């Protein structure tokens, strides 16, 4: 079969060339059109439900909205987790589904359940399923700047000009608008006039709602035509709104304007945005799940460029986050590493092969395989990202191996100048090495295929790596057995089979050293075993982490302030921090800070929470060596702003953390229970324990308590006497505090809500509980009473935030870890908590965050690696037919891993998932080298040489291919090991492990393996 | 445990408690880093405003001069508007109809009758003094005279406000005094008219037009003045009868330019006399549910509990608190951050 393929290729050379040209063309097209992103899509199938209810406390939201919805959603099949966060006026319920669950099916299920429960929700509850995005969908953010426009005007532009336009861009799920003021038509009832005209608020709002409508009537036949009839009552402007007749008094019609003041107002705000210490408005573009982020960003930018020309003069859109920048930088880092790897590998090949023609033929395989891999990625729907392209870089050094073996043998066969046709010689040469080439490729593929079994975040991250390597190796095999012989037949001559002089000298040196070590083999074995032991010791001291933090190039500072803080005070503190940072750090170009909730509710932060986005100048202008140093300096500067919890993160890192645990932080300790006070107390106790651990940074305990409420409890006797119900009183107070939505004025596409209430920029006019007590209430019988007469007003405390998971309340303590391995950190926290905290019955503690993923990843890898080893043994047995040789080759593996451990230790890198993947890759390369050596020994056996000579000659003969295999793999990874751009952090541990492992593995293959073979064979024959 | 030991322990416990409270409610300025700290002195406040029930511009009860007619004219054509200022003897209405004619005839008849009865009375007075006529007869003559005089006087009082028209069925009603004219249906009706009389209107003295509103029982002692959007006016009368939860207060006469018309219903705020302090409203925060302010003492900020009693306007909070002196400095910026410190927030680990 294999022979027929090679034969067909050499017989149909032109056809093969045409086929490959076509494949190259399509591969190039695929590269041009591949969806590009920084990360693979790491989100699970996730559906988010966001519900809002104006003015409701967290406890009420939980009781009336969150709980009923959760109960209904709990029954949906294939869900893995159901969690919710309930705050003042908003609840966010998140459902994660099993891997592979269709997102549209999941959304449909959630929708159906929501519809079923909607009838028991309070009438003021509004919301539903959030846009179909992922936590990483926030891909483009900008503020709208124009000093001559008010915040209300800016928001209006965002709401009614920019948002509708951007939503037409393919791949945009929604545009989240933050900050500014939403314009309303505000009717401030004059209580004296209402009293005089004998109106009450319920009557008035009912009358307005009935009057402010356009009714549809129907159609009449008018001659041969038909005329559509409608009724028109809807106001179209603030003037016509005032003219609406809302009733009559003593037979006189009363217009709305006669009963109060109509003015432009603002909705009550749940958040704000500041830029460089001044308030502004911001838009955040959310990409649709599975969209091509780079393409969407490009289209958004094109659309914005078109819109910007139509905006009022002096208006600019200041982009402060563009995912495309990260994509370009990360992909640039990796493509640069790829380019460097290609050049280095070609140089290494040239160095070892010693002739230009042979080097050209082998080097040809790299671009061809790369393009074929892109084609395979395109066909199978893989995106070009940090991980998939990283896989290609890892594969570069290995994908030339097959071609090297084929070309080297071809050169050798041609060099012998046998009296046979050239094509036949090439066929024989290719045919002869086909099995080892296939076996080698199979070993590499086998090594990486198990990575596809990884689950969770690590699975989503490393599947593309494994897939790309598998594609590249298959493409390299195909190329080595078809294209390479064809090209070799055109390019190689019979004189290409000479060995370069330096290599001859190297071979002589190797022959001598091998002889010496064969004579002192016990010393060598002892030394190597000592090193192995040392590596074992060092392994125990290696830091462990789940995933290296990718430097996204951006810094987000998270502030958590007093839970009862007002929006104005919160923004004032933000401004202080912003101005201080701007003045102290020229590295910060601009600062955009977002406080409170966004409009869509995708990230329902409280008024006390702020994400400060630092827009940094290019790193080459910094006073600091790297971002780490800059971050430390900012930490120091922020230490001068006490009274706030301060944390550091990055845009994607923040969302990934939230996606994994529902909270940010490397370690998330969840305390499950029912009583808020107990949950809060335990959380604070645990937070104190965590703070005392070495390496703990940014430790925060969720502030469950701290929500301050004024409970207005009607006095039943008086309320009944005056005919005032709790619901009516609540409506009345709502009008005074946050406004009462009674309708809309629609003009073109602009819909302006009509609110009853006398508010100042969305805020109640009174500023203290005493004023609330003195508030005059217009009773249904038209009398007036101060609120304190009608009701008891008590100050009470309750939860500001309620977190739930699987329908249970929990509090959470989060922490990041610095300068210490995560697993060790968690172990010490676990022990300290277990020995210090006495949990009451019904309470439990769970440890989550990245730590959880590391445990899962370790378990998966510990299952996968033995399976890989068994498969490798089976392949080796298939090749050699002897278990002993298979085990001898496999004995090389621990020494290869030893190099990886040394590499990590020397460079200070932690043992992480990428490093573990590096160890898996090492398995393949180490075994491959052994196969090259042992298979040659087995071939030489037929030449009846003395064993000692066979071992030495064989080893010397395989020096070049082993060095080539090792050095191409090693040097191919060097650019990754030294890369410094965003994204390099993830691939670096992998590259270091492989490079370190290859150094020791190559040494072992060149010295210990021949010695082992020698003693094994000698004992066998003895 | 003897009493001395118990007392010693009690004092010790109080000291520990006091130290603990102090420790948990004070922050050293040295710990506030680069937070922007601004202060403002505490001000003394002697009065503050509060919203009241709706105010109404009314006439003090009993003060209007009612125009009572002994007839009920078929037609009354008012020549002045309701609420218009009128001068004395200004024509305010044209009365017409047979009743006017009857009134005029009646007046003429009663005048003639009065003259007859007066003549007879005068003639018989001397006779009666010398007992020339019987006592019964004299008593009858005198009774007739006084009845005629009373009847005439009653008609004549109205006739003084009546200017006859050339047409017998018509006549003008004249203003009995200067003041504000009020239509009969709008005029105060706290004194009932007799069945034979008709109220044609009333004249109100401008000084008796007042602003009145209801204030809470608990606040009546402290009410000093009333405010509307257009004017402020002192309180003159506080009624001694409660209207459920309220007491009615009456203003002094409305000053010139007050722009409050009789009958107007307006939103009213009342001025209460207090002995309190004021600080910017934005300097008040809540610590464990208690309204507090941060008062600066040397190098320390101390959270001082206060009792809020109102606002002088939307930007100032009025409160009482023991042991606070005017001009003590109160923190007006970065309050939430300092509050955060007391709540255990802050710092970068």
TrEMBL record, chain A:
Its main location: membrane. It is a multi-pass membrane protein. SUPFAM superfamilies: Multidrug efflux transporter AcrB pore domain, PN1, PN2, PC1 and PC2 subdomains (SSF82693), Multidrug efflux transporter AcrB TolC docking domain, DN and DC subdomains (SSF82714), Multidrug efflux transporter AcrB transmembrane domain (SSF82866). It is found in: Cell membrane. Keywords: Cell membrane, Membrane, Transmembrane, Transmembrane helix, Transport. One of its GO terms (cellular component) is plasma membrane. The chain crosses the membrane at residues 12-31, 330-353, 360-377, 389-411, 432-457, 469-493, 514-539, 861-880, 887-907, 913-937, 958-978, 990-1016. One of its GO terms (molecular function) is xenobiotic transmembrane transporter activity. It holds the Pfam family ACR_tran. Belongs to the resistance-nodulation-cell division (RND) (TC 2.A.6) family. This is CusA/CzcA family heavy metal efflux RND transporter. It comes from Alteromonas hispanica.
Automatic annotation (TrEMBL), chain B:
GO terms for biological process: copper ion export; plasma membrane copper ion transport. The keyword Nucleotide-binding does not apply. It comes from the Bacteria. InterPro entries: MFP_Cation_Efflux. PROSITE patterns: PROKAR_LIPOPROTEIN. Residues 1-23 form the signal peptide. Keywords: Signal, Transport. GO terms for cellular component: cell envelope. This is HlyD family efflux transporter periplasmic adaptor subunit. The lineage of its organism: Bacteria, Pseudomonadati, Pseudomonadota, Gammaproteobacteria, Alteromonadales.
């Amino acid at each position: 079969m294999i022979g027929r393929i090679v034969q067909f290729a050499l017989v149909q050379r032109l056809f093969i060339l045409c086929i490959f040209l076509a494949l190259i063309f399509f591969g190039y097209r695929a590269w041009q059109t591949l969806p590009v992103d920084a990360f693979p899509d790491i989100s699970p199938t996730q559906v988010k439900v966001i519900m809002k209810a104006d003015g409701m406390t967290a406890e009420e939201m939980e009781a009336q909205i969150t709980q009923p919805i959760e109960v209904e959603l709990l029954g949906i099949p294939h869900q893995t987790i159901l969690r919710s966060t309930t705050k003042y006026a908003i609840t966010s319920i998140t459902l994660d589904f099993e891997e592979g669950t269709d997102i549209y099916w999941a959304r449909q299920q959630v929708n159906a359940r929501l519809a079923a429960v909607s009838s028991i929700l309070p009438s003021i509850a509004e919301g539903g399923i959030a846009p179909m995005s992922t936590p990483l969908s926030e891909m483009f953010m900008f503020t709208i700047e124009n000093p001559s426009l008010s915040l209300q005007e800016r928001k209006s532009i965002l709401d009614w000009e920019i948002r509708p336009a951007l939503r037409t861009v393919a791949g945009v799920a929604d545009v989240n608008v933050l900050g500014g003021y939403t314009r309303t038509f505000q009717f401030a009832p004059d209580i004296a006039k209402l009293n005089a005209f004998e109106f009450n608020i319920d009557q008035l709002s009912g009358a307005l709602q009935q009057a402010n409508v356009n009714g549809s009537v129907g159609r009449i036949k008018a001659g041969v035509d038909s005329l559509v009839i409608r009724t028109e009552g809807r106001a179209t402007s603030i003037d016509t709104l005032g003219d609406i007749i809302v009733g009559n008094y003593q037979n006189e019609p009363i217009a709305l304007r006669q009963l109060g003041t109509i003015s432009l107002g603002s909705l009550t705000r749940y958040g704000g945005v500041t830029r460089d210490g001044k308030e502004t408005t911001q838009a955040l573009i959310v990409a649709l799940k599975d969209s091509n982020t780079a393409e969407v960003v490009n289209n958004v930018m094109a659309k914005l460029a078109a819109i910007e020309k139509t905006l009022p003069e002096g208006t600019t859109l200041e982009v402060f986050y563009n995912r495309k920048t990260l994509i370009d930088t990360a992909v640039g880092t990796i493509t640069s590493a790829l380019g460097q790897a290609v050049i280095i590998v070609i140089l290494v090949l040239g160095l070892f092969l010693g002739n230009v023609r042979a080097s050209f033929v082998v080097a040809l395989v790299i671009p061809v395989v790369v393009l074929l891999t892109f084609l395979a990625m395109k066909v199978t729907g893989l995106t070009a990202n940090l991980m998939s392209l990283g896989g290609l870089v890892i594969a570069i050094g290995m994908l030339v191996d097959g071609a090297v073996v084929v070309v080297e043998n071809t050169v050798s066969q041609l060099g012998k100048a046998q009296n046979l046709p050239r094509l036949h010689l090439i066929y024989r040469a290719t045919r002869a090495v086909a099995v080892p080439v296939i076996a080698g490729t199979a070993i590499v593929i086998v090594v990486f295929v198990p990575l596809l079994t990884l689950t969770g975040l690590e699975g989503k991250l490393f599947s593309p790596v494994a897939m790309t390597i598998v594609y590249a190796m298959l493409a390299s095999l195909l190329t080595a057995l078809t294209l390479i012989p064809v090209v070799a037949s055109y390019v190689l001559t019979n004189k290409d089979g000479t060995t370069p002089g330096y290599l001859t000298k190297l071979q002589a040196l190797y022959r001598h050293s091998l002889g010496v070590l064969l004579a002192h083999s016990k010393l060598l074995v002892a030394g190597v075993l000592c090193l192995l032991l040392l590596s074992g010791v060092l392994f125990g001291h290696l830091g462990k982490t789940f995933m290296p933090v990718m430097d996204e190039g951006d810094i987000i500072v998270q502030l958590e302030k007093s839970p009862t803080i007002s929006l104005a005070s919160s923004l004032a503190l933000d401004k202080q921090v912003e101005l201080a940072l701007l003045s102290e750090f020229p590295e910060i170009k601009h600062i955009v800070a977002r406080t409170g909730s966004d409009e869509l509710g995708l990230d329902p932060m409280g008024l006390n929470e702020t994400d400060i986005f630092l827009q940094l100048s290019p790193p080459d202008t910094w006073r600091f060596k790297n971002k780490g140093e800059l971050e430390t300096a900012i930490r120091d500067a922020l230490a001068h702003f006490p009274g706030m919890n301060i944390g550091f993160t990055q845009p994607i890192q923040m969302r990934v953390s939230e996606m994994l645990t529902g909270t940010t932080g490397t370690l998330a300790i969840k305390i499950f229970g029912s009583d808020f006070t107990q949950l809060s107390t335990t959380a604070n106790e645990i937070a104190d324990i965590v703070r005392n651990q070495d390496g703990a940074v940014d430790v925060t305990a969720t502030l469950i308590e701290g929500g301050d409420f004024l409970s207005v409890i009607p006095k039943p006797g008086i309320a009944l006497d005056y005919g005032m119900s709790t619901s009516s009183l609540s409506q009345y107070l709502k009008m005074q505090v946050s406004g009462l939505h009674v309708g809309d004025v629609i003009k073109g596409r602009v819909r302006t809500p009509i609110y009853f209430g006398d508010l100042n920029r969305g805020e109640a006019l009174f500023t203290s509980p005493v004023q609330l007590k003195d508030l005059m209430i217009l009773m249904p019988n038209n009398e007036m009473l101060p609120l304190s007469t009608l009701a008891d007003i008590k100050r009470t405390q309750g939860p500001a935030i309620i977190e739930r998971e699987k329908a249970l309340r929990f509090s959470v303590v989060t922490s990041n870890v610095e300068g210490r391995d995560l697993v060790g950190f968690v172990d010490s926290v676990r022990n300290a908590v277990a020995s210090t905290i006495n949990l009451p019955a019904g309470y439990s503690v769970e440890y989550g965050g990245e730590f959880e993923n590391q445990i899962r990843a370790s378990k998966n890898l510990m299952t996968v690696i033995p399976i890989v080893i068994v498969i490798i043994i089976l392949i080796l047995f298939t090749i050699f037919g002897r278990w002993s040789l298979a085990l001898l080759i496999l004995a090389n593996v621990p020494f290869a891993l030893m190099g990886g451990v040394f590499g990590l230790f020397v460079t200070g890198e932690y043992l992480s998932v990428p490093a573990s993947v590096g160890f898996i890759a090492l398995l393949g390369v180490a075994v491959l080298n052994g196969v090259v050596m042992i298979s040659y020994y087995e071939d030489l056996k037929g030449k009846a040489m003395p064993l000692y000579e066979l071992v030495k000659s064989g080893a010397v003969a395989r020096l070049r291919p082993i060095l080539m295999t090792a050095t191409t793999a090693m040097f191919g990874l060097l650019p990754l090991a030294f890369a410094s751009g965003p994204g390099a952090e993830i691939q670096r541990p992998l590259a270091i492990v492989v490079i370190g492992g290859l150094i020791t593995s190559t040494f072992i293959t060149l010295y210990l393996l021949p010695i082992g073979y020698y003693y094994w064979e000698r004992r066998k024959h003895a | 445990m003897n009493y001395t030991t118990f007392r010693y322990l009690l004092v010790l416990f109080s000291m520990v408690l006091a130290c603990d409270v102090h420790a948990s409610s004070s922050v050293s300025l040295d710990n506030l880093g680069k937070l922007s700290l601004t202060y403002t002195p505490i001000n003394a406040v002697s009065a503050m405003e509060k919203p009241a029930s709706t105010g109404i511009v009314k006439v003090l009860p009993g003060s209007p001069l009612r125009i009572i007619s002994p007839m009920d004219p078929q037609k009354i054509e008012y020549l002045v508007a309701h609420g218009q200022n009128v001068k004395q003897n200004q024509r305010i209405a044209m009365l017409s109809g047979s009743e006017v004619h009857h009134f005029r005839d009646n007046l003429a008849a009663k005048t003639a009758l009065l003259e007859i009865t007066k003549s007879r009375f005068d003639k018989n007075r001397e006779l009666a003094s010398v007992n020339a006529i019987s006592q019964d007869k004299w008593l009858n003559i005198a009774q007739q005279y006084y009845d005629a005089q009373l009847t005439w006087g009653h008609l004549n009082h109205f006739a003084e406000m009546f200017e006859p028209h050339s047409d017998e069925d018509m006549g003008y009603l004249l203003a009995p005094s200067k003041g504000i004219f009020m239509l009969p249906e709008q005029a105060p009706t706290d004194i009932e008219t007799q069945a034979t009389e008709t109220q044609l209107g009333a004249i109100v003295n401008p000084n008796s037009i007042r602003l009145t509103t209801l204030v809470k029982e608990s606040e009546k002692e402290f009410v000093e003045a009333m405010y509307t959007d257009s004017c402020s006016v002192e309180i003159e009368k506080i009624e001694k009868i409660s209207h459920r939860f309220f007491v009615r207060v009456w203003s002094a006469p409305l000053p010139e330019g007050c722009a409050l018309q009789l009958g107007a219903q307006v939103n009213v705020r009342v001025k209460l006399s207090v002995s309190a302090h004021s600080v910017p409203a934005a300097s008040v925060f809540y610590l464990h549910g208690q309204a507090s302010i941060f008062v600066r003492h040397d190098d320390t900020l101390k959270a001082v509990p206060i009792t809020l009693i109102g606002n002088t306007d939307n930007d100032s909070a009025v409160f009482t608190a023991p042991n606070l002196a005017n001009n003590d400095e109160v923190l007006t910026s970065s309050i939430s951050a300092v509050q955060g410190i007391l709540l255990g927030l802050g710092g970068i680990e």
